[in-house]
C-alpha cells in the first residue's frame, strides 16, 4: 500500500480502535481519555519502531498521517468546540458567566505567569519561553472530566462551570500563545499595553464575529425545515467559516468565533427548527464531536514518543516545578480570586468541594499537545526552546491524564458530590413510588387481557401527602419551587410539540419560549410571586409591538402594527391552550408527586395566568371578532392535519400502508398544510371613511363637509393600557372615539368615554396644558384632529362648533381635561 490508500487505511484503523475504546473504558472503569492516551502513545511507538511485515505495514500507515499543528487546530477544533457550544444550556451558562470568565481568561493569564516565573530561574531559556509554556498548559480538556461527571451524576452546576471554562480558555490560551510566540520570534514588541490591546481585540472581535454569524444562520435556518440534511450541512459550514474567517482573514480569535456562533445557534436555533429536526441535528453533531475529540486526542498522543525522544533526568525536576506552579496558580484563582466575585455580587458562591474538583479536574489534552507541536515546528524559535516546550508540555499532559483523571472519581465520592441532596433524594423516592404504582397497574391489565395468572404486586412505596416522613425533607416552599420548575419545563415541551405539529407558527413559539425563560428566572428569584410577575410581563406589549405602534403613530403606517397584533393574538391562543393542558398536568402528575398543598399553590398560580390570558385575548376578540374566529378555525384545521399525519405514520409503522402510498399521502398532506399555514390577514379597520361614519356627531353633516373632515382626520389605534394623553403636556390635538373606550383620569375621579364621544378639546379651546391622563381601556379606534385643522373645522360648521363648546362647558364645570 502507498499514498492515499495508506492514509485511508491508517484513518480507518484509528476509527476502528476508537469504536472499541468506549465499551472497554466502561468495562475497566477507566476514563475514556486515559485509554485514548495509552492507545495513542502505543501507536506512536509502533509507528517509530515497526519494521517489516504486517507490523511494518501498519507502522508505515501510521507514519503516513502527516498532521502539523495547523491541521490539528483547523480540522478538529471547530467541530469539537461547536458541538460543545450548541449543547450547552446558554441560560445556565450566563448565570455563571462571571465565574466562567474568571476561570477561562483570568486563570489563563495567572497560570501562564505563575508557571513562567516558577521555571524562569531554573530553565535557562528566558522568561518569554517559560510564559509561552504556561500559556500552552493553561487550556483544559473537558473530555475526561465531563465523562466522569456523567458517570457518577455530578451536580449540574459543576458540569456547567467546567464545560464553560473549557469553551473559552482554549481561545484565551491560543491568543496568549500567539502573542508570546510573536514576541519570541521578534514579530511583536514586548510592551504589556500592546499585548493587552491585542488580546482584547482578538477575543472580543471573535465574540462579535461569531455572534453575527450565528444570528445570520438562525435567520436562514427556517428554510431548512423540510431539509434536515441541508440544515446539518449549513451548521458545519457555519462552524468552519466562523473559525477560518476569524483566524485567517480578520485576525481575531477563530476559536471564540466558533464558540460564539455555536452558543447563538444552540440558544436561538432550536426555536427555528422543529424539535424532531433539532434532535437529529444535535445527534449528528454529537457523532461528529465524538470523532473529532477521539481522533485529535489519539493523534496528539501518537506524537508523545517523538516529543519525549530527548528526555533527560534533569527535565523531571523541571516537570515537578511545573506541576507545582500550575496547580498553585489554579488554586490561587479558585480560592483567592473567585470569592471576590461572590463578595462583589457578580456570581453565586462556589463551595469548597466544587473548587477542589475543578482544581484537580483541570486535565490537559489534545489542544495543549497541538500547541506544543506548533512550537516545535516553528524554526524561528531556538532549538533549546523547542525542546524545552515539547518535553515539559508533554510530561504535564501525561501527568494530568495518568494521575488526575483516574483519581478524580474517588475525590468526588470522598467529597460526597456523587450523591443527591436530601430534597432530591426525597423527590426521587416519590417519583419511583408513583412509577411503581403505574407499573403494577399496567401488569395487572396485561395479565387480565391475556389470561395470565399475575403474581401478587409488590406493595407500592408510600407516596406522601406532604405531612411528614420523606416529605419532611421537602419544605412547602421547596416543594412549590420544584413544582413551578416542573410546570415551566412542561410548558416549554408543550410549545415545542405544537411547533413540531405545525399548529403554531415559528414566530409565536419563539415569543412563548422566551417567556418560559423569563418564568425560570422569575422562579429562581421570587418563587411563586416571581413566576407570576414573569408571566404578567410576558403578556405586556414587547418592544417589537411598541416599535410598530410608534411607526403607526408617527408615519401613519398600519401594516407593521397589524402583523404584530396578529402575532400577539396567535400567541395568546396558544398560551391559553397550553395553560389548560398545564392545569390537567398539575392534577395528574404534580399533585401525586408533591401532595395537595403544593398542587393548590400551582393551581392558584395557573388560575391567575389563565384569567390574565383570557382578558388579553378577549380584548382582541371584542375589537376584531371576525379575525379571531378565522385564526381559531385555522388552528383547528392545522390540529386536524396534525392528527391526520400521526394517523398516517402509525398506519405506516403497522405496515397497513405501503411506503409508496404513505409518500403520496404525505405529499398531499404537505400541500394542504402549506395552504393552511398562511396566517389570516388582520384588517385593523382604520379606514377613515368608515371611522367617520361611526361617529354620530359627523353623521348629520353635509356630504361635502363630511368629506372635508374625513381628509383632515387621522386614524389611530390605541392598545389596552396605552396612555393617549398625559397630564401637563401641551395640547396639540383632540380625539374622536370611533369604537372602543378610554378612561379620563382626573385628580379626584375617573370618567369613562365610549364610542361617539371625544376628548382633548379643552386644551385646544383654552390653550392650556392638559390636566388629566387619558388611557385606553381596550383596543380603541380613534380619529385624531390636529390643532390647525380643529380651528378650521370649528369655523366651517356652526352646529359642530356649538356641540363641542357645549360639551366643553359641561366639562369645565366638572374640572374636565
Overview of this protein structure:
The protein is mainly α. 74% of the residues lie in helices and 4% in strands. The protein has a 4-stranded antiparallel beta sheet. It has a 4-stranded antiparallel beta sheet with strand order 2-7-4-5, with no helix packed on it. α2 packs across α3 and α20 crosses α23. The longest helix has 36 residues. The termini are far apart.
Secondary structure elements and their pairing?
Layout: H1 3-28, H2 32-49, H3 53-63, H4 69-87, H5 90-95, H6 97-123, H7 127-136, H8 143-152, H9 156-185, H10 192-220, H11 228-249, H12 254-268, H13 275-301, H14 304-307, H15 313-343, H16 352-360, H17 366-377, H18 383-414, H19 422-450, H20 476-500, H21 506-539, H22 543-555, H23 559-594, H24 596-623, H25 625-653, H26 659-676, H27 688-693, H28 696-699, H29 703-712, E1 714-718, E2 723-725, E3 733-739, E4 742-745, E5 750-753, E6 758-759, H30 761-766, E7 773-776, E8 780-786, H31 787-796, H32 798-813
Antiparallel strand pairs: 1-8, 2-7, 3-6, 3-8, 4-5, 4-7
Helix pairs in contact: 1-3, 2-3, 2-13, 4-11, 4-12, 4-13, 4-17, 6-7, 6-9, 6-15, 7-9, 7-18, 8-18, 9-10, 9-12, 10-11, 10-12, 11-12, 11-13, 13-17, 15-16, 15-18, 17-18, 20-21, 20-23, 20-24, 21-23, 21-24, 22-23, 23-24, 24-25, 25-26
Amino acid at each position: 500500500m502507498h499514498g492515499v490508500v495508506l492514509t485511508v487505511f491508517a484513518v480507518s484503523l484509528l476509527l476502528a480502535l476508537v469504536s472499541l475504546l468506549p465499551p472497554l473504558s466502561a468495562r475497566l472503569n477507566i476514563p475514556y481519555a486515559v485509554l485514548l492516551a495509552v492507545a495513542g502513545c502505543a501507536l506512536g511507538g509502533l509507528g517509530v519502531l515497526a519494521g517489516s511485515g504486517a507490523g511494518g505495514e501498519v507502522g508505515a500507515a501510521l507514519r503516513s498521517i502527516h498532521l502539523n499543528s495547523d491541521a490539528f487546530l483547523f480540522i478538529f477544533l471547530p467541530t469539537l468546540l461547536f458541538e460543545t457550544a450548541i449543547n450547552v444550556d446558554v441560560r445556565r451558562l450566563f448565570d455563571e458567566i462571571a465565574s466562567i470568565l474568571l476561570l477561562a481568561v483570568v486563570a489563563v493569564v495567572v497560570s501562564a505567569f505563575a508557571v513562567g516565573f516558577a521555571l524562569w530561574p531554573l530553565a535557562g531559556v528566558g522568561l518569554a519561553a517559560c510564559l509561552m509554556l504556561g500559556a500552552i498548559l493553561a487550556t483544559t480538556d473537558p473530555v475526561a472530566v465531563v465523562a466522569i461527571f456523567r458517570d457518577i451524576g455530578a451536580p449540574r452546576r459543576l458540569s456547567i462551570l467546567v464545560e464553560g471554562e473549557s469553551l473559552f480558555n482554549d481561545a484565551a490560551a491560543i491568543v496568549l500563545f500567539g502573542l508570546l510566540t510573536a514576541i519570541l520570534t521578534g514579530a511583536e514588541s514586548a510592551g504589556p499595553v500592546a499585548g493587552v490591546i491585542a488580546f482584547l481585540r482578538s477575543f472580543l472581535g471573535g465574540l462579535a464575529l461569531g455572534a453575527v454569524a450565528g444570528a445570520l444562520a438562525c435567520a436562514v435556518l427556517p428554510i431548512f425545515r423540510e431539509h434536515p440534511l441541508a440544515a446539518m450541512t449549513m451548521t458545519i459550514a457555519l462552524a468552519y467559516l466562523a473559525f477560518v474567517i476569524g483566524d485567517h482573514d480578520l485576525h481575531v480569535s477563530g476559536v471564540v468565533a466558533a464558540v460564539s456562533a455555536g452558543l447563538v445557534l444552540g440558544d436561538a436555533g432550536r426555536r427555528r427548527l422543529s424539535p424532531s429536526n433539532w434532535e437529529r441535528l444535535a445527534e449528528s453533531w454529537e457523532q461528529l464531536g465524538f470523532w473529532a475529540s477521539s481522533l485529535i486526542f489519539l493523534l496528539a498522543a501518537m506524537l508523545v514518543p517523538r516529543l519525549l525522544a530527548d528526555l533527560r533526568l534533569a527535565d523531571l525536576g523541571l516537570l515537578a516545578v511545573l506541576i507545582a506552579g500550575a496547580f498553585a496558580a489554579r488554586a490561587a484563582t479558585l480560592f483567592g480570586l473567585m470569592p471576590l466575585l461572590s463578595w462583589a455580587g457578580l456570581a453565586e458562591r462556589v463551595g469548597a468541594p466544587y473548587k477542589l474538583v475543578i482544581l484537580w479536574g483541570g486535565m490537559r489534552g489534545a489542544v495543549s499537545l497541538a500547541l506544543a507541536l506548533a512550537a516545535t515546528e516553528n524554526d524561528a524559535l531556538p532549538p533549546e526552546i523547542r525542546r524545552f516546550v515539547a518535553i515539559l508540555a508533554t510530561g504535564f499532559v501525561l501527568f494530568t491524564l495518568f494521575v488526575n483523571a483516574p483519581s478524580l472519581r474517588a475525590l468526588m465520592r470522598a467529597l460526597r458530590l456523587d450523591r443527591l441532596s436530601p430534597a432530591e433524594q426525597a423527590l426521587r423516592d416519590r417519583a419511583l413510588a408513583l412509577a411503581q404504582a403505574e407499573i403494577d397497574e399496567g401488569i395487572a391489565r396485561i395479565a387480565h387481557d391475556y389470561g395470565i395468572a399475575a403474581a401478587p404486586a409488590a406493595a407500592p412505596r408510600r407516596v406522601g401527602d406532604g405531612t411528614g416522613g420523606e416529605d419532611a425533607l421537602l419544605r412547602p416552599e421547596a416543594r412549590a419551587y420544584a413544582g413551578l420548575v416542573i410546570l415551566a419545563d412542561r410548558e416549554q415541551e408543550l410549545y415545542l410539540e405544537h411547533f413540531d405539529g405545525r399548529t403554531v407558527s415559528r414566530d409565536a413559539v419563539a415569543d412563548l419560549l422566551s417567556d418560559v425563560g423569563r418564568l425560570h428566572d422569575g422562579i429562581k428569584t421570587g418563587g411563586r410571586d416571581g413566576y407570576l410577575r414573569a408571566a404578567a410581563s410576558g403578556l405586556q406589549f414587547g418592544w417589537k409591538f411598541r416599535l410598530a405602534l410608534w411607526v403607526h403613530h408617527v408615519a401613519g403606517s398600519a401594516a407593521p402594527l397589524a402583523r404584530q397584533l396578529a402575532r400577539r393574538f396567535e400567541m395568546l391562543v396558544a398560551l391559553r391552550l397550553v395553560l389548560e393542558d398545564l392545569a390537567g398536568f398539575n392534577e395528574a402528575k404534580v399533585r401525586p408527586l408533591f401532595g395537595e398543598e403544593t398542587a393548590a399553590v400551582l393551581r392558584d398560580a395557573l388560575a391567575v395566568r389563565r384569567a390574565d390570558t383570557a382578558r388579553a385575548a378577549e380584548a382582541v376578540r371584542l375589537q376584531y371578532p371576525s379575525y379571531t374566529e378565522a385564526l381559531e378555525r385555522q388552528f383547528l384545521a392545522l390540529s386536524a392535519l396534525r392528527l391526520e399525519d400521526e394517523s398516517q405514520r402509525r398506519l405506516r409503522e403497522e405496515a397497513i400502508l405501503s411506503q409508496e402510498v404513505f409518500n403520496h399521502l404525505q405529499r398531499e398532506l404537505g400541500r394542504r398544510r402549506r395552504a393552511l399555514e398562511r396566517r389570516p390577514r388582520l384588517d385593523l379597520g382604520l379606514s377613515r371613511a368608515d371611522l367617520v361614519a361611526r361617529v354620530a356627531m359627523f353623521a348629520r353633516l353635509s356630504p361635502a363637509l363630511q368629506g372635508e373632515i374625513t381628509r383632515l382626520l387621522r386614524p389611530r389605534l390605541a392598545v389596552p393600557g396605552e396612555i393617549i394623553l398625559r397630564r401637563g403636556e401641551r395640547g396639540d390635538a383632540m380625539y374622536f372615539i370611533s369604537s372602543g373606550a378610554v378612561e379620563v383620569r382626573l385628580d379626584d375621579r375617573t370618567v369613562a368615554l365610549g364610542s361617539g364621544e371625544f376628548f382633548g378639546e379643552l386644551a385646544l379651546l383654552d390653550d392650556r396644558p392638559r390636566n388629566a391622563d387619558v388611557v385606553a381601556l381596550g383596543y380603541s379606534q380613534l380619529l385624531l384632529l390636529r390643532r390647525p385643522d380643529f380651528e378650521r373645522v370649528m369655523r366651517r360648521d356652526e352646529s359642530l362648533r356649538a356641540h363641542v363648546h357645549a360639551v366643553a362647558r359641561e366639562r369645565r364645570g366638572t374640572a374636565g381635561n
